[in-house]
Write a structure and sequence with these properties.
The protein has 236 residues and is of the alpha/beta class. The protein is built from four helices and 16 strands. The longest helix has 16 residues.
């Protein structure tokens, strides 16, 4: 359990989950002002090197790009703790493949704050030699943080794993973006990693998490986060 601290003022928009007001950042993170927690999901670091070892040559810059975006958030919010909700690495061998510059970047991000790695299905073991604390789940006031969403009702749950994206029609054209998916009781965070894909919130995988169309997709835009009711969302 992380003890609360005096609330820090935060700008809109906010997503309220189980009574907790969470700042939704357009880069795809949540910030909880009461505890000073910055929360991200599915970094999938070293995904590029994972596929390169299997003959699929992707540009080897995904880890540096993802950590650079995370550094922007840390600079903006100055969090007391950073919480990564699992699948922080694309596989268990990812930490060993990291370039020294990227390892140094992680160390710099951890400087002066707590850092918690939540176990994911891609990375069930703690990342060796990268600092921080490993957990399966974490309680943050009324919130419970884990990697994979729980089937059925789970008030206060923050999870990742599903990489939610939403699709809408804008001026007659389809627009597909990563999103936060929430019904006010729980929220599924978008994947933060540069090479992480996305699953449409209309997919059957989300059906057991929300009651019908009683949820909202907060889509990530270049300049903000925008709410769309489920009834206006399109399948792929």
């Amino acid at each position: 359990m992380i003890p609360p601290r005096p609330s820090k003022s935060a700008s809109e928009p906010t997503i309220t989950v189980a009574g907790a007001a969470l700042v939704a950042d357009p880069l795809g993170a949540l910030y909880e002002p009461g505890s000073g927690a910055l929360i991200v999901a599915d970094l999938h670091l070293e995904k590029g090197s994972y596929f390169a070892r299997r003959g699929q040559m992707l540009p080897p810059y995904d880890t540096a790009t993802t950590l650079g975006r995370l550094a922007r958030l840390v600079a903006a919010y100055q969090p007391r703790v950073v919480i990564a909700l699992g699948d922080s690495f694309h596989d268990d061998g990812g930490p060993a493949r990291m370039h020294e510059a990227d390892r140094a970047a992680v160390a710099e991000l951890q400087r002066g704050r707590d850092w918690i790695w939540i176990a994911g299905n891609h990375d069930p073991a703690p990342p060796a030699g990268l600092g921080g604390e490993a957990r399966l789940t974490l309680v943050l006031g009324a919130l419970t943080l884990r990697h994979e969403p729980t089937a059925g009702a789970a008030p206060g749950e923050l999870a990742g794993h599903l990489h939610p994206v939403a699709k809408v029609a804008v001026r007659g054209r389809g627009l597909r973006r990563r999103c936060f998916a929430t019904d006010g009781a729980r929220v599924v965070l978008p994947a933060f990693g540069a090479y992480a894909g996305g699953l449409n919130v209309r997919d059957q995988a989300f059906a057991g998490l929300f009651s019908g169309d009683a949820f909202t997709a907060w889509m990530l835009g270049d300049a903000g986060v925008y709410a769309f009711a489920a009834r206006g969302l399109r399948p792929d």
